[in-house]
Design goal:
Layout lengths: L1 H33 L13 H10 L11 E3 L8 E5 L1 H13 L3 E4 L3 E5 L2 E2 L4 E4 L4 E5 L8 E6 L2 E6 L3 E4 L2 E6 L3 E3 L3 H8 L7 H8 L6 H4 L6 E4 L2 E6 L2 E3 L6 E4 L2 E6 L2 E3 L1 E2 L2 E2 L6 E4 L2 E6 L2 E3 L5 E4 L3 H7 L3 E7 L2 E2 L6 E3 L7 E12 L3 E6 L7 E13 L3 E6 L4 H4 L14 H7 L11 E22 L6 E34 L6 E8 L3 E4 L10 H4 L6
Parallel strand pairs: 1-3, 2-4, 3-6, 4-7, 5-10, 6-11, 7-12, 10-13, 11-14, 12-15, 13-16, 14-17, 15-18, 16-21, 17-22, 18-23, 21-24, 22-25, 23-26, 24-27, 25-28, 26-28, 27-29, 28-30, 29-31, 30-32, 31-32, 32-33, 33-34, 33-35
Antiparallel strand pairs: 8-9, 19-20
């Protein structure tokens, strides 16, 4: 008897060692890919989508800026950290554009400014030692027609705006400082959730309206523009989303560092990089620490998003690292226009709250298809795979309480509350998705899937995946799943909960023989960042 027990323990121990060697190999494959080294675990060659985008963005004729230099100091800008420089910097930009284009640059210093609008054929260059800092005053960021969280509305201009322009670079190793704590406190008080509009709106039954009514300044927005490069800059403390690519085309984001959590403060809804109904987008080599979705795709919300009906398509996110945040890679929750031809690979999450995340709602609609996610490493991610298509009901389903007088309604409340007709049009659909070469260790819940019986999450291929988690999770409304070499390790033999599933394979299950570490709490683990 004792011999049998010893043998079982030894077999399990050996198997655990083998699995962790695979964890290490997968980690190495990601870093090898980042260094341009072919790993044996990587699919040989690059996909046609990746090759086509690389061809566009490495072409010598892509985004050429005339060889002229315009120094903002020559136009009156002062980098003393006090003077307001909006007019001087905008004059520099406008002069460069009027001359046919050129580079706008700065002497070392901190330049306080309101909203700036970059023009066609301009390279807005922020050298190392230069900080472009947002002034903490709403009146310097005029309302501009845009899309916010999937709704067409007026919203404050960003610190840096590329608005209906083309052939623009944002470059340099300097810093965009969104100076966002002013807007963070406006949203939820200080300390967080102690007051602000957040507490007031929660008390009045208006959770769904806070993010729209509490207007906060974003760091960098590309809107209805094309042929854009955003490279090497550092972005700190965005008041709201950090980089928004809305209705954008042919955009290359490369080597950007985002830091929205530091000194014990963190920004609400401070998403890292959002592509919203954009096409032909490449995001790579970025390092993101924020307090919402790190790398995200969106495509409009509810009746308004279905009206616009513009998909997000032909997008590659690759070779990035995420730290604090709510989604290593997220689709949604704004899914109305649909998404297709998406490839995501070479990512690493360290302490990010959620890993691969799909979220939507029963009034969002949209078809998400032909998505390939591969060569991902996650460590201390609480939910490595979380697919919740009935996400955050108090935010997702606007209902105006009877206690609110009509005189207090915002114009866009009517847009948000408009019913989707017929209702079936509002059910989102996710299909034809491949997940391959992924490791997730020190996780919380292994799998969480919550879709709809009318449109189950279907035609998914899971291949070469190892998940280590405290609990196995649950799957609701899934159909036609294939799993090849997929393993789930948990401390117990508790089964995965299944509800309304058809023809799905499940992971190979093993009970681990050691104590799993709890995932780190990202916001409390960040070192203080100096800027």
């Amino acid at each position: 008897m004792y011999t049998s027990i010893i043998n079982i323990v030894l077999v399990r121990a050996v198997f655990t060692i083998v699995l962790f060697s695979l964890f290490s190999t997968l980690s190495c494959s990601v870093y090898a890919q980042q260094r341009g080294v072919q790993s044996p675990l990587l699919t040989p060659g690059k996909s046609p989508l990746v090759q086509q985008l690389e061809t566009v963005f490495t072409d010598d004729d892509f985004c050429i800026i005339p060889d002229r230099v315009f120094n903002a100091s020559d136009f009156g800008a002062v980098g003393d950290g006090k003077s307001l420089n909006t007019k001087a910097i905008q004059r520099t930009i406008d002069s460069a554009a009027a001359a046919g284009g050129g580079q706008v640059t700065f002497n070392p210093g901190v330049y306080v400014t309101g909203a700036l609008f970059i023009k066609t054929n301009v390279d807005f260059h922020i050298p190392e030692g230069v900080t472009i800092q947002a002034i903490q005053d709403d009146k310097h960021f005029p309302d501009t027609l845009t899309r916010i969280s999937g709704i067409t509305m007026e919203w404050p201009a960003a610190l840096i705006n590329i608005y209906r322009e083309q052939n623009i670079r944002i470059s340099g190793k300097g810093t965009l400082d969104g100076n966002g704590k002013y807007w963070w406190d406006k949203y939820w008080g200080n300390p967080p959730r102690s007051g602000g509009m957040y507490k007031d709106y929660i008390d009045r039954g208006l959770r769904w309206a806070i993010d729209f009514d509490c207007k906060r300044v974003r760091a960098l927005v590309v809107y209805e523009s094309k042929e854009i490069i955003i490279q090497d800059i550092n972005i700190y403390r965005s008041g709201f989303w950090t980089i928004s690519l809305t209705y954008a085309e042919q955009v290359h984001v490369n080597g950007v560092t985002i830091r929205n959590n530091f000194d014990g403060h963190f920004g609400p809804s401070s998403d890292g990089i959002n592509t919203d109904s954009g096409r032909n987008i490449l995001v790579e080599n970025c390092d993101i620490d924020c307090n919402d979705d790190n790398l995200c795709l969106k495509a409009g919300r509810d009746a308004d998003g279905l009206r616009v009906n513009r998909p997000t398509e032909r997008v590659v996110y690759r070779n990035c690292i995420t730290r604090s945040g709510h989604g290593l890679f997220t689709i949604g929750s704004e899914t109305s226009g649909g998404m297709h031809d998406i490839e995501v690979y070479g990512l690493k999450a360290v302490g990010t709250n959620t890993g691969i995340r799909f979220k939507s709602a029963k009034i969002r609609g949209g078809v998400m298809r032909d998505i390939y996610i591969h060569d991902i490493v996650m460590d201390s991610v609480d939910s490595p795979f979380r697919f919740d298509l009935n996400w955050y009901p108090s935010f997702s389903y606007p209902v105006i309480p009877d206690s609110i007088p009509e005189s207090e309604y915002k114009d866009y409340w009517h847009t948000m509350a408009k019913k989707v007709d017929p209702p079936e049009r509002g059910i989102p659909e996710f299909r034809n998705i491949t997940l391959e070469n992924i490791s997730a260790k020190n996780g919380g819940t292994g799998l969480y899937v919550n879709a709809y019986p009318e449109k189950p999450m279907s035609s998914m291929l899971w291949k070469n995946i190892i998940i280590e988690a405290r609990t196995p999770g649950e799957i609701s409304c899934a159909k036609d799943w294939t799993m090849e070499n997929v393993t789930l390790l948990t401390p117990s033999e508790e089964p995965i909960k299944l509800d309304q599933t058809e023809n799905i394979q499940l992971p190979l299950r093993f009970k681990v023989l050691y104590q799993l570490k709890s995932p780190v709490i990202p916001a409390e683990k960040n070192p203080k960042l100096k800027h």
